[in-house]
Amino acid sequence: MSDRSTHWDHVYATKGEAEVSWFQDSPTISLEMIRAANPDHGAAIIDIGGGASRLVDALLQDGYRDVAVLDLSANALDAVKKRIGKIGSIVDWIVADATTWQPAKTYDVWHDRAAFHFLTEPRDRAAYVERLRAALTPGGQVVIGTFAPDGPEKCSGLPVQRHDSASLAAELGPEFELVETRSETHHTPWDSTQAFQFSRFRRRGS
Fold first, then answer.
1. What is the pTM of this model?
2. Which residue ranges does the record assign to the Methyltransferase domain (predicted)?
3. Closest Cα to residue 49, out of 73, 23, 22?
């Protein structure tokens, strides 16, 4: 088990779903941006670093049936499985590091809220983008949410790399076209605020 996996397994083993700063009752912006990508209900959607997020619940409620959730922490995914019950049997639960994972299939939509910003080393960001390119279909779309340039410098005791749409575009490369970017002021469970940005890109090719 990697140091990153150990860290996040400990977080999810010791804290409840609503006891972490990134908790959202409803992942509104993520859902809106995924819907804006206009995937049909047969589209393959993956949530990278999904943790115990309620995004998978909402996607299943929307009628999507080819949904995967990838996270470093088995404890996080176990918590989601317990929460959503039997319908979770159709979800592909993947315990893996997005920088070393070997995708077994391709996806039409790649979503990541607050995983990419933990990659502070250029080599890790490059490895992540390599997996993204391997996993995303031509014409597929990617939504990445990170702390904005005026957001926190750390999360869960770890340093982060803050981004805006321009820095994300530079990381992804010219085959990804920026479609939209949005700002969010996230209110933590203890009512502090965090500045986020969400950017949606389309992979050129169709």
1. 0.91
2. 45-140
3. 73
